[in-house]
Amino acid sequence: MAAALAGPAMGAAAEPLHGIAMHGEPALPADFSHLPYVNPDAPKGGQITYGVVGTFDSVRPFIIKSMRTHARGVVDQEYGNLVYETLMHRSRDEPFTLYGLLAETVEWDEERSFIQYNLNPSARWSDGKPVTADDVIFTMELLRDKGRPPFSTRLRRVEKMEKISDLSVRFTFNESSNREFPLILSMSPVLPKHAIDAETFDQSTLQPGIGSGPYLISDIKPGERLTFTRREDYWARDLPVKRGLDNYDRIVVEYFLSETAQFEAFKKGVFDVYPDGSVTNWARGYDFPAVENGDIIRQEYDKRTPSGMYGFVFNTRRAKFEDIRVRHALTMLFDFEWANRSLYNNAYTRTNSFWDGSELASTGTPADARERELLAPYAELVSPDILEGTWALPVTNGSGRDRKIQRAALTLLQDAGYRIESGRLIDGAGRPFSFALMTQNEGQEKLAVAFQRSLGALGIEMSIRTVDDAQYQQRSQTFDYDMIMKAFPSSLSPGAEQINRWGAASRDTPGSFNFAGAASPAIDAVIDAMLNARTADAFRSAVRAYDRVLLSAHYVIPAFHFAKSRVAHRARITPPDGPPPLYGYHLPAWWDKTATE
Question: β-strand 461-466 against 434-439: which pairing, if any?
Fold first, then answer.
């Protein structure tokens, strides 16, 4: 796609905007001074060390060779975009709103048929050169040709890319675009044209790059440690979207081979912040001196975002899981009540929706008129009780052998052509019903054993195989499994990422997140409606309809979620006062209080 210098006939000019929102208007006015969840006067200085499980062999996170092993922090939602920045900055306190960063303002029309980025004239690369429209165009074409998804696919929705001036570039969209895409494009990173060899860009490298972000990579210990040093000449440090962020002089990322090694290192003071997703570890793992003497603080935050979905995922590419009655029956046989009591001290809540805990969840609410109209062509794909909002997952007596639920599940299996003979569930040809569950760690394996116990009561043979990370990633990316345990995070603004998870186009694409092998016209239709919703009400209806379709198909046996987020950290590392933003605590807003002592 060749970039063209725009001629005089560019159409009517749009009003420059300081921010854009998926639905409605940005919450903050054009003259806002800082994001509401930061301390604008947070001191600069000190150091933080993060700990992660894994390794890395590249500091270039945009290429296929670095998909599983890139360096954390270079471009990072959790730790911040330390080296490379995006055109706009996402607010963590609004469902989906972006404010100007590299792009000082943007312009678009009501139909969102185009977006124009007007770059901040103060934006500079770490070598002092200005960030220009040529850099934006170069980046988009480079990532199209040499990058990995989703960066490599973004220009597919662009009809033309035009340089308006040295500091302005306009993207006009084609018919495959949707109302969300301009916001997705706005979160694209920008790379320096003058400092990158396009021919070798798709190769892994440990050579630190030139970026526009607040940090530079100052030290690399391959596969083990990365060190970032804050730039004193960072161009955006006083912008409203950056005030109160990027507070440390040094950021270190330490890598560990396992979760066990990671937590042991945290206990010994090797790194400073430990987000803890294990209720068992949170309850039992903090009996050590640093907690007792106050050097480590433990904090819990109420979640204000949807639960997401974590559970056992059927690979419907396998013949044994093609029949929805089989998937429904096995869903009934997972005894959450027994597992929650016996394994987790009743700490978890059963997940009944992909957006549990939010207004986007369909459970408990009958479909509204918009949903019914949207789902009418696919009536056979939506369960009547799910459509009416009366459906819920079965609640067992907690014995692990609830006979009433077992009988109901067996009826479904018999309808699908199975019967019990000599204590084994067999099909019409006498073949036993058996399959393998691939797990990734001890935590998954513990829950899998509980499920295996329940299935065995009906003569179903489920083997469990826990594999190392490399094999797990390779097999999950090639869909080489019968069943797998996965988490599907959710937000208050689901969008195009859902195509890669559940859309028919991603079913046979290696490396996609369509682990279930879903390919349903109903799914594609509701995703399209969700992406093109113009109002918050229409969007909510589309997401609820989407939730109903996914739940009706029984692609996932829902496990559970925890209604709080938990994090342990060194006492010298301090979060801002007050409640965290909508999407949870934000580590780049924290600081080292010893910097002021």
Answer: parallel
Rounded Cα–Cα distance for residues 99 and 103 (Å): 9
What tokens were used for 206? Answer: 């440990």
Is the Cβ–Cβ distance between 207 and 216 less than 8 Å? no
Residue closest to 257 by CA, chosen among 53, 58, 442, 67: 53
Measure the CA–CA gap between 408 and 424, rounded to whole angstroms. 17
What 3-state DSSP class applies to 58? strand
Question: Which residues does 312 contact at the CB level (< 8 Å), separation at least 6?
Answer: 330, 334, 437, 451, 483, 484, 485, 556, 557, 559
Yes or no: say if 527 and 374 are a contact pair by the CB < 8 Å rule: no
Closest by CA to 359, choosing from 301, 310, 305, 302, is 305
Tens of pLDDT along 267-304?
999 999 999 988 889 989 999 999 999 999 999 998 88
Rounded CA separation 371/375 (Å) = 6
Residues in the chain: 597
Query: In what helix (H) or strand (E) does residue 463 lie, and over which residues does it extend?
Result: strand 461-466
pLDDT digits (tens, 9 = 90+) for 380-408: 999 999 999 999 999 999 988 899 999 99
CB 351 within 8 A of CB 559: yes
What's the rounded Cα separation, in Å, for the pair 120 and 137? 16
* Other residues' Cβ atoms within 10 Å of the Cβ of residue 27: 14
How far is 102 from 119, CA to CA, in rounded Å?
Answer: 6
**What number of other Cβ atoms are within 10 A of residue 212's Cβ?**
28
Closest to 141 measured CA to CA, from 163, 124, 121: 163
End-to-end Cα spacing for the chain: 55
User: Which of 340, 334, 382 minimizes the C-alpha distance to 485?
Assistant: 334
Q: Kindly report whether the global pTM for this prediction surpasses the value 0.90.
A: no
